[in-house]
Recover the amino acids of this structure.
């Protein structure tokens, strides 16, 4: 039996319900984002950073299902939030990173050519990859595997709400906050 709520459904008989996996995935990704910045101090961060990690977690997972018209902006002076956004960027798909030097900046699209990418790949190649790279790759693969069972929704708002529902109240608040433009809801 496959459980289906809205546009979420498990594929085939190997999955009886994707909902428990989503309920586990969103907090795990949020904790990973916090741990990537704060290490074991993730248990001591303020509610503000917990909410940011929940919003980033929800947007990151949703990005594996469909594109979202959501932009996270962070000041260069806010290193912890900036690092969390960088980690979410590495975990997501359909994202573009921007760097703005002023209010009305001209747009310059940066693109590495194939030779520079190959040089970079060669320089970072190690016999044993770093733990951070391995962890990020694992989390991204886990997101991708679970998101493969979720169909796009008619609206990005509906997708956020459907993903948040199984994970509980705090993620439902994160979804509403993202839908309303990032304002914190208490």
């Amino acid at each position: 039996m496959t459980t289906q709520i809205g546009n979420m459904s498990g594929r085939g008989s190997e999955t009886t319900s994707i909902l428990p996996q989503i309920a586990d995935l969103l907090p795990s990704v949020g904790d990973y984002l916090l741990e990537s910045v704060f290490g074991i101090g993730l248990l001591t961060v303020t509610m503000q950073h917990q909410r940011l990690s929940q919003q980033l977690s929800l947007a990151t997972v949703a990005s594996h299902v469909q594109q979202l018209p959501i932009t996270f902006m962070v000041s260069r002076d806010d290193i912890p939030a900036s690092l969390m956004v960088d980690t979410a960027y590495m975990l997501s798909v359909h994202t573009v990173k921007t760097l703005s030097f002023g209010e009305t900046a001209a747009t310059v699209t940066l693109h590495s050519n194939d030779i520079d990418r190959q040089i970079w790949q060669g320089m970072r190649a190690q016999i044993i990859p770093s733990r951070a790279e391995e962890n990020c790759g694992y989390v991204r693969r886990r997101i991708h595997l679970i998101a493969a069972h979720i169909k796009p929704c008619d609206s990005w708002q509906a997708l956020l709400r459907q993903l948040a529902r199984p994970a509980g109240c705090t993620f439902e608040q994160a979804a509403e906050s993202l839908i309303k433009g990032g304002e914190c809801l208490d």
